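Predict structure. Input: Glycosyl transferase CAP10 domain-containing protein, 350 residues.
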Amino acid sequence: MERDVSESTLQDRTASFHQIHRALLTSPEPLPDTVFALNILDNPLPGTWSYSRPVSSSLEFDVDSPGQDNPIFPMPHFSYFSWPKRYIGSLSSALSRIATIEESTPWTEKIDKAVWRGTTWFTPAGRPEGRRRLLEVVRERDGAGKVKGNMKSWADIMALESGKGNELRIEHFCRYRYVIYAEGVTYSGRLPYHQACASVLLSPPITYLQHTTHLIRPLFSWSLPLSSSSSVQNPPSKPVPNPDVKTNTSFPISYPPSQANAIFVSSNWDDLEATVQYLQSHPDIGERIARNQRETFVGRGYLSDAAEVCYWRELIRAWSSFAVVDEEEWEEGMLWEDYILTGKVQWDRR
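Output follows.
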C-alpha cells in the first residue's frame, strides 16, 4: 500500500520515474516497449534496475542457463533528478556550485586535510566496522594505545550528529584536498558529487558499482612508498596488476599517478593516515590525481544530464532485448501524466 511507504522512498521512486520519462521524452528516436522491475532499495536485486550492483556480479545473461541469477542493471541515482535535502540538492545544481568553488579555489589554497561526514549505522554487511573504524583511526591515542578525543591534524572526519552543527554542504567538500568515500549499506549516493571535485578521492576498494563507478582508475595505496623501509621507492610509472582476488575483477590494475583518478586504501583504513601524509609530502602527485578525477567525470561529461538520459536509453534497449513481455499487459497500463497526478496504476472500477 502507498500509505505504508516512507516519504523518502516515495520521493526516490518518483525521481527515478521522472528520470525515465525525461529520457523517453527527449529521445531522438522511439525506444522499445518493455516491462521492467525498478528497485529503489539500497540492496540490489537480480533481475531489476537497481542503483548499484556488487563487484562480483555479472552483466551477462545466458538464455541457456535459466537457473542462474538474472543480472542486475545499474540505473542512474535518483539525485540526477532531485535529492531534496538541505545540504545536498540535485546533482546538476551541485555541479554548478562545485564549479564556482573550483574556479576560485586552486589546489594550493585547498584545505590540506581529509574530510568526511556521515552516519555510522549505514555500514556494509561485509565490513560492519567500516565507518566506525574510520572514526577510530583519525583519533589520537595515549601511551597505552587507547583512543583519546583529539582528532589528528590531517583529518576533518566526523559522524553527523543532529544539532551539533557539523554538517557540510556537499559542494564544500571540494574545498579540501582529500575527500573520503565510505560505502553505506551498499553504495553511497554521494560518490558522483565527490567525483566532481578536483580533490583526491580516498576509499577502500569499492564493493558496489554505480553506473559510472567503472570509470574509476584507482591507484592502490600498497603501490606507494608509505614508509622509509618500504621496498617501493617511487610510485609506479605505469599500470601494475592488482593481486587482490577480491577486487581485481572490477579493478584489475593499479594506475600510476599520471593516470589515476582515485586512491584505494586498505579496507580497514589502517594505512589512511600514511596515505594522507604521503600526499601532503608530495602535493604534485595529489594535484595530478585530483585533476584527473574532475577532468574524467566533469570534463568528459559523464555526470551531465545529457549523459544520464543517454544511459537510460541504452539501459532500456539492453533490458528489452531479453525481457519477455505479455503484450496483453499493455491494456492494463495508465498514462504517465495520469499516474504522476493520481498515484494510481489503474482507474477505480465503479
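The chain is about 25% helix and 15% strand.
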